[in-house]
Amino acid sequence: MTSPATPWDLPAGFSWGTATAAYQIEGAVDEDGRGPSVWDTFCAQPGRIRDGHTGAVACDHYHRWAEDVDLMAGLGVDAYRFSIAWPRVQPDGRGRPNPAGLDFYDRLVDALIARGITPTPTLFHWDLPQALEDDGGWLARDTAARFADYAGHVADRLGDRVRTWITLNEPFIHMAWGYALGVHAPGHALLLDALPAAHHQLLGHGLAARVLGGAGAERVLVSNNLTPVTAASESEADRAAAAAYDTLHNRLFTDPLLLGRYPDLAAYGHDRDALPFVESGDLDLIGGSLTGLGVNYYNPTVIAAAEPDAALPFTTVEITGVPRTAFDWPVVPEGLTTLLTGLGARYGDALPPIWITENGCSTAEGRDDPERIAFLDGHIAAVAAAGKAGIDVRGYYVWSLLDNFEWAEGYHQRFGLIHVDFATGTRTPRASYHWLRERIGVGRPG
Ligand code: GBH
Hints:
Number of domains: 1
Protein name: Beta-glucosidase
Catalytic activity: Hydrolysis of terminal, non-reducing beta-D-glucosyl residues with release of beta-D-glucose
Bound molecules: ligand GBH
Keywords: Carbohydrate metabolism, Cellulose degradation, Glycosidase, Hydrolase, Polysaccharide degradation
CATH architecture: Alpha-Beta Barrel
Organism: Embleya hyalina
Enzyme class: hydrolase
């Protein structure tokens, strides 16, 4: 009998990381030639962000990055998922790259590698250059080509040291909240007319994956927010609504990426073989482009049928009888096992290795965070259970390293293993940081 490397009995070589995103931590929005992003614009509009908070300073990671790398090294993780701000690299979203913007990530990558931490950058975590939004954003097909061009500039600079790339973060949430509901930047409330933003993100990924492959990438992932969906009742109507929701949230992105075709979109009034924004060759490019799947998991979803003439064919039902995070999201660790085994059942051999690229919860501000410890412990155990059931999960990134700018909630939600005092920038590891260090260190040499 061999003793497990960690208390969770995960496979040898399982990777541990933390995750962040540029606009949520960097600040320094006007420095070294950075151009404005859709999030700068959105935050400046009254009423968009709780209490008018913005990412202008955030965690000041742009200046405190070395301290943050030290904190990660102290935690004992071997990987770091961060995002690259497109408007630092191409202030107007096109043309010659801005060397000073690339320098920042160049230094960060070197510092991570020097501490034995594998850099896993995400190229797009929602901060589109405002100039591209002015030309239509992800509703415009050309943005996909711009994205591939941007990816090429980043790969030219970092591709000698970065092996694993994540092209997109949560294209579903970006489409749904940014383009369909308007609660995130760029603030469009187009409902189902937001669909082209899904396809153009996927196309951008496909084009970028080809560029990254050419630059020697070993793995290219998309990190999507996935949720296991169940029907509120056994009724035919609720089950149809749940299937429709599953199609939109989970399959709309994963099917084209893994199977090279869109799911049945009849529930949304579309013929999947006649989508006006899909051109010939697009799906060949998108399908088969993934060499790893990034899964961001927060909670399951329960769905019921909508009223007959509602705009969308489903409605969300609150999950009761479980603990809730400070954000009021239900805590259901076994939902992650269900999600992962469900992916295996749905995609079979087409499913590439999986990395959990985000999982975590917001808690009260205090440094003592038993809720976070319980959340992480339960969810990591759920990953191990999926592994036992035959799902190839290779790593887990905690969202997040630091308390940060939580989008429309501003600084009100705290997701960090490390507390941040936003008045002074002071970082203080929480109890969960010490707990995780201990747990992932067990069985490790040195
Ligand atoms: C991610 O999005 C983002 O990638 C990251 O930037 C962000 O900071 C982090 O998660 C935390 O929010 O109403 O109870 O059904 C997460 C997307 C969408 C996941 C809403 C949970 C619903 C909760 N989230 N969702 S509930």
